[in-house]
Amino acid sequence: MLIALLTDLHANREAVSACLAHAQEQNVSQYAFLGDLVGYGADPAWVLDTVMDYASRGAYVLMGNHDIALIQEDRKGMNPIAFQVVEWTRSQLNEEHLAFIRNLPYRIEVQDMLLVHANAWAPEKWEYVEGTMEATRSMHATKAHITFCGHVHMPTLYHMTLTGKTGEFLPAPENSIPLSKQRRWLVIPGSVGQPRDGNPAACYATFDTVTLELTYYRIPYDAETASAKIITCGLPASLGQRLITGN
């Protein structure tokens, strides 16, 4: 089974469309959306409608911190830009969208894999995996051979040896990486809708559950249109500019 792993879509219709079209060309048979379907971008309803359609056909979908913010009444401590985006996003959605979000899980276990948005040790607290220390903590918190997570908008791969030593690897796009059973793995595909590694191309990954091969992809898309739509909606211009620069 070839799984497409897409995370941090952030209401970016152009990026999501490009990644899904590319995944279809790879003959993907299963999809996993690792949270943060909304936030920052101009097309939350379209992205949710699309993901809901995939979910109706068996796709895995997780809760992200931007998703849960839509259904929380107490948003004290949220920075002003994030608060503005949440309020605007809620105004674009209907009750069906919100009901779908309310029912999203924080974690999904499939075969020898764990899917989470943020980390394995406390997925509902949204702490980041920003280096080998957090990656080790996350891998120790599960018995799964491979953990797939998002939240961090930069594609990264961590591995832990049988002796507990953790290494970090920055994957090159379109290179097949065999995930040996002799190690534990934590896979961060990078963000579909808002990359932050200096490359504006959308990120996603595929994993073959038979050959255990992981492949990262960078997908160019119409970031100029996505950026302009953010500004037209009255959202902060910085969010649009970020799509152009990838930072």
UniProtKB/TrEMBL annotation:
SUPFAM superfamilies given in the database record: Metallo-dependent phosphatases (SSF56300)
Family (UniProt): Belongs to the metallophosphoesterase superfamily. YfcE family.
A single Gene Ontology CC term: cytoplasm
Gene3D superfamilies (alphabetical): 3.60.21.10
Protein name: Metallophosphoesterase family protein
GO molecular function, one term: phosphatase activity
Taxonomy of the source species: Bacteria, Pseudomonadati, Pseudomonadota, Betaproteobacteria, Burkholderiales
Domain Calcineurin-like phosphoesterase: residue ranges: 1-210
